[in-house]
Amino acid sequence: MNDMTPDREERSANLKGMGCSRKRVEDSRFTQGKGNYVDDIKLPGMLHGDFVRSPYAHARVVSINKEAALALPGVVAVLTADDLRPLNLHWMPTLAGDKQMVLADGKVLFQGQEVAFVVASDRYVAADAVELVEVEYEELPVITDPFESLKSDVVLREDLEGQTEGAHGPRKHHNHIFTWEQGDESGTNQVLDNADVVATESMYYHRTHPCPLETCGSVASMDKVNGKLTLWGTFQAPHVVRTVASLLSGIEEHNIRVVSPDIGGGFGNKVGVYPGYVCSIVASIVTGVPVKWVEDRMENLMSTAFARDYHMTGKISATKEGKITGLHCHVTADHGGFDACADPTKFPAGFMNICTGSYDIPVAYLAVDGVYTNKAPGGVSYRCSFRVTEAVYFIERMIEVLAIELGMDSAELRRINFIKKEQFPYTAALGWEYDSGDYHTAWDKALKAVDYDGLRKEQAERVEAFKRGETRTLMGIGLTFFTEIVGAGPVKNCDILGMGMFDSCEIRIHPTGSAIARLGTISQGQGHATTFAQILASEIGISADSITIEEGDTDTAPYGLGTYGSRSTPVAGAATAMAGRKIRAKAQMIAAYLLEVHDDDVEFDIDRFVVKGAPEKFKTMKEIAYAAYNQAIPGLEPGLEAVSYYDPPNMTYPFGAYVCVMDIDVDTGVPEIRRFYALDDCGTRINPMIIEGQIHGGLTEALAVALGQEIAYDDIGNVKTGTLMDFFLPTAWEVPNYETDFTVTPSPHHPIGAKGVGESPHVGGVPCFSNAVQDAFRPFGNRHTNMPHDHWRIWQTANRLGLHD
Amino acid sequence: MIPAAFDYYRPKTMGDVIALLQEHGDDARVMAGGHSLIPMMKLRMADVPHLIDLQAIDGLDAITIDGGRITLGAMVTQHDLINNDGLSNAAPILSEAALQIADPQVRYMGTVGGNVANGDPGNDMPGLMQCLDAQIKVVGPDGERMIAARDYYESAYMTLRADDEVLVSIEFDAPAGGHAYEKQKRKIGDYATAAAAVQITSDAGKVGSASIAMTNLSDVPVWSEAAGAALVGTACDDTAIKAAVAAMLGDIDPSEDNRGPVAFKRHVAGITLSRAITRAWSRTTARA
Ligand SMILES: Cc1cc2nc3c(=O)[nH]c(=O)nc-3n(C[C@H](O)[C@H](O)[C@H](O)COP(=O)(O)OP(=O)(O)OC[C@H]3O[C@@H](n4cnc5c(N)ncnc54)[C@H](O)[C@@H]3O)c2cc1C
């Protein structure tokens, strides 16, 4: 053997494959301000669009006078619904089977709704012109409460009047959208009626908003000479946008190129299709020059995709010993003026039916009623798979309430109800098949790490000290055990606007042994260029540093359904591994030919193929790549490329155990997070450093939502939280030091066993922070209080419990 | 978030500033750090066709400590207040308060003069200056005049400064005794839910004098003479603090906003003040 040959360990390290904390290749450009975002795109002759928005939450649009605006030098056009009507683009379909006004067609249904689109030579002129468009409104009664909406005579959606059948079945009332039922209603009721113990609770998961640093925007450029439309935009699903744009505009799909450049965070905010995108396209078609639209922060908060807004009522039953016997959940879902929820077509309430959580619950029933109100449309999955945060919050609160009812410790209650390791794959009462899990091990590890018994003892002492008047600070211990459901497909269950939710990867190996891989997904900060190269490095034996990952350009990337719902690693990551394996299979044949042995007589070894039993005889992947291009190999086509479209057989089910310790000042309502421990099991770990970063980010957004972040409306539908002064976006100052930990339970059906992790900390974090607040007040009779737990609401809880007397 | 068009001026002398103010009247405004004014212009809540930047005027950014008298030029930044050793010795309440204003980026730009002149009930400096019994020097077409900080504020954004006058400096005696600036806010960069500025002196174990001002609990800063009086002559014990809080509650008039309802704000105002008094008093004895 050649002594210069690096040993196996060194060769393996050189690959920077799976399991190593490779530094993010994206960061050199982001940290130097060299990213290329939508608003960085500047094209010759480009015009700028800006919206006239409704100041009213519900009003008839009596007239729109454009004259003064058009007279302003630099203004090129003012578009209204009447201008879009001939193109049939004044309304557009939503992802939820409803339709939405692109520009106000006769009336407005929420404050901030798009009324007219001004196109001008620069954004300053456009902003001035917006002020000059005179719109006459006639105010209508405003409904901001979904329960009131279902009783009201006021018809919000006049365009649907008389339609008793919606996209998801019958509509019970003119402001009702759908009822979605899952599970066994009568069976569940029977169990509840005969149970030893039943705990009932109503909770409101408030409306909030994913708040990426970069707001939404697009640049449309219609080339009238060659008939091609190029659309750059903040799209989490660029390929679907191309298909939708083609169907809506009638432009053939090959004549549309959609590009998602660098994206400054998505969190679900950039899944939907917004009027701004449509208007920039129409404006470019009309004017023949590129048109840019970029919303500002206030527009982003008030008009693009909200999240949550679920009114949930639960009943959970158990034996005296605490074994859960049944679960009943009803949701009244406030969808705003249009149903623009971003869910797979057959799931109008997303995967809310994962609400049995991590527990072995024999029977369950879920019903969700979607309702129209005078609020902005949306209903996206904010850093979570479809409605999974709602589901996990619901069950983790119900567990706490049941523990109170039973007079039991909630850690123990969880333990005795966990699905057991040997029960996987486990089919839950509401239908999902959980792929793998080892909950008891994770839970025990978490409780031990924080010295759970010691914490409870300290808490009990604190309560005594409080009662003696020695302290005004209470201590809360927040517990959460969550199971996520991520990685949609499978195609047979999941589609978006008819497109099956597969994903894809296409690999080209260059002659000198480096490579490019293109995927159907699009990174918004998750670090795909880093981690997907690591998957490939391990699969094909080429160093991650020699692999370029490219996403987001529909002219070059294979079709995919995009990045949201933690689906990139479960689906596109699987496609990457599968395409890599095709490369490897061909490489094996080339190696065997070069080594003059039978295909079966060579085996893969880190970065090469070696002759079995004679490792000194080998061909490196570099040599193989070169051979693929420089010589004729009998029976093989030249080149080394592969593509895989991956339809996952199932979703993946990451899980985790979180503990939060909080001190609460009863007099001011100020919470202080003393400790936050997060154990995550996302199966095989590709890059531990990126996982940790994702967990820190997700927990921070969880802290935000639990402790103050909301989109609040007043009675007449005014948004009260329209700027970052009132909309809570935590900084390093508000965030504690997180302790992260893990177990590894690979997914049995995923090629590399990975499950997806970016959203877990948000899903698990929200109930954990909330449970800590609620737990602090449990000794004084608190059962449940709604989020967000900002200072005054915490203070109000203390006040209600008589702690200020 | 794009302001309406405006003309920008950067005069070099105060005379030129006043001339511009006289020429354009209501349509002109001076700008210091711009961190209150520019957001208002971007929201189109302030319409300023003629914007006069004060950055090029010399001599407005001095901190002078002369004997027991402290003078802060209008263009002294909030950051300057934090890093001035002389000031931190002579009037430590200033840095304690400044550290609770906004964040470092805002403090590099935001000025004392702008904060005091602005008239926003959320600003922290006005209450602080009332606590310190500061005098505000303004200059206008008819020359200079002094206005007491305790008289300066009429209602939100309305002050005794005339439109053609410019605030040039703020002066006050270096306070004796103990101090505290206590502020509750929702997050970094937020205005106060409630804030209290307290200066106390001790005289043979009893409170010799006490000055108390509250922020963001009315449409103007609230200097509560009665709250201070309630402490004087007492041992600053629980009973005295309760009396001071009760007196203060009689002077404030908070309104409901996203920070919470009135009952909460009144409660927190009381807690904030009692903590501020306790801390200020403990520093009095520490200094004695
Ligand atoms: C995110 C954020 C958070 C903040 N948080 C706080 C906080 O917690 N507490 C707080 O107190 N402030 C806060 N501020 C406000 C900040 O401190 C401002 O800088 C300050 O209020 C105004 O100072 P300025 O120099 O920026 O004044 P500018 O914005 O330039 O001016 C404000 C007003 O005062 C007038 N003015 C300025 N200088 C003079 C002068 N010399 N003579 C006459 N009129 C003058 C202007 O015409 C204008 O009307 C915050 C600001 C931001 C952006």
Automatic annotation (TrEMBL), chain A:
<comment type="function">
    <text>Catalyzes the oxidation of carbon monoxide to carbon dioxide.</text>
</comment>
<keyword id="KW-0479">Metal-binding</keyword>
<keyword id="KW-0500">Molybdenum</keyword>
<keyword id="KW-0560">Oxidoreductase</keyword>
<dbReference type="Pfam" id="PF02738">
    <property type="entry name" value="MoCoBD_1"/>
</dbReference>
<dbReference type="InterPro" id="IPR046867">
    <property type="entry name" value="AldOxase/xan_DH_MoCoBD2"/>
</dbReference>
<dbReference type="InterPro" id="IPR000674">
    <property type="entry name" value="Ald_Oxase/Xan_DH_a/b"/>
</dbReference>
<dbReference type="InterPro" id="IPR008274">
    <property type="entry name" value="AldOxase/xan_DH_MoCoBD1"/>
</dbReference>
<dbReference type="GO" id="GO:0005506">
    <property type="term" value="F:iron ion binding"/>
</dbReference>
<dbReference type="InterPro" id="IPR037165">
    <property type="entry name" value="AldOxase/xan_DH_Mopterin-bd_sf"/>
</dbReference>
<dbReference type="GO" id="GO:0030151">
    <property type="term" value="F:molybdenum ion binding"/>
</dbReference>
<dbReference type="GO" id="GO:0008805">
    <property type="term" value="F:carbon-monoxide oxygenase activity"/>
</dbReference>
<protein>
    <recommendedName>
        <fullName>Carbon monoxide dehydrogenase large chain</fullName>
        <ecNumber>1.2.5.3</ecNumber>
    </recommendedName>
</protein>
<dbReference type="InterPro" id="IPR036856">
    <property type="entry name" value="Ald_Oxase/Xan_DH_a/b_sf"/>
</dbReference>
<dbReference type="GO" id="GO:0005507">
    <property type="term" value="F:copper ion binding"/>
</dbReference>
<dbReference type="Pfam" id="PF20256">
    <property type="entry name" value="MoCoBD_2"/>
</dbReference>
<dbReference type="Pfam" id="PF01315">
    <property type="entry name" value="Ald_Xan_dh_C"/>
</dbReference>
<dbReference type="GO" id="GO:0043885">
    <property type="term" value="F:anaerobic carbon-monoxide dehydrogenase activity"/>
</dbReference>
<keyword id="KW-0186">Copper</keyword>
<feature type="domain" description="Aldehyde oxidase/xanthine dehydrogenase a/b hammerhead">
    <location>
        <begin position="32"/>
        <end position="141"/>
    </location>
</feature>
<dbReference type="InterPro" id="IPR012780">
    <property type="entry name" value="CO_Mo_DH_lsu"/>
</dbReference>
<dbReference type="InterPro" id="IPR016208">
    <property type="entry name" value="Ald_Oxase/xanthine_DH-like"/>
</dbReference>
TrEMBL record, chain B:
<dbReference type="InterPro" id="IPR036683">
    <property type="entry name" value="CO_DH_flav_C_dom_sf"/>
</dbReference>
<dbReference type="InterPro" id="IPR016166">
    <property type="entry name" value="FAD-bd_PCMH"/>
</dbReference>
<dbReference type="InterPro" id="IPR036318">
    <property type="entry name" value="FAD-bd_PCMH-like_sf"/>
</dbReference>
<dbReference type="InterPro" id="IPR002346">
    <property type="entry name" value="Mopterin_DH_FAD-bd"/>
</dbReference>
<protein>
    <submittedName>
        <fullName>Carbon monoxide dehydrogenase medium chain</fullName>
        <ecNumber>1.2.7.4</ecNumber>
    </submittedName>
</protein>
<dbReference type="GO" id="GO:0071949">
    <property type="term" value="F:FAD binding"/>
</dbReference>
<keyword id="KW-0560">Oxidoreductase</keyword>
<dbReference type="GO" id="GO:0043885">
    <property type="term" value="F:anaerobic carbon-monoxide dehydrogenase activity"/>
</dbReference>
<feature type="domain" description="FAD-binding PCMH-type">
    <location>
        <begin position="1"/>
        <end position="177"/>
    </location>
</feature>
<dbReference type="Pfam" id="PF03450">
    <property type="entry name" value="CO_deh_flav_C"/>
</dbReference>
<dbReference type="InterPro" id="IPR005107">
    <property type="entry name" value="CO_DH_flav_C"/>
</dbReference>
<keyword id="KW-0285">Flavoprotein</keyword>
<dbReference type="InterPro" id="IPR016169">
    <property type="entry name" value="FAD-bd_PCMH_sub2"/>
</dbReference>
<dbReference type="Pfam" id="PF00941">
    <property type="entry name" value="FAD_binding_5"/>
</dbReference>
<dbReference type="InterPro" id="IPR051312">
    <property type="entry name" value="Diverse_Substr_Oxidored"/>
</dbReference>
<keyword id="KW-0274">FAD</keyword>
<dbReference type="InterPro" id="IPR016167">
    <property type="entry name" value="FAD-bd_PCMH_sub1"/>
</dbReference>
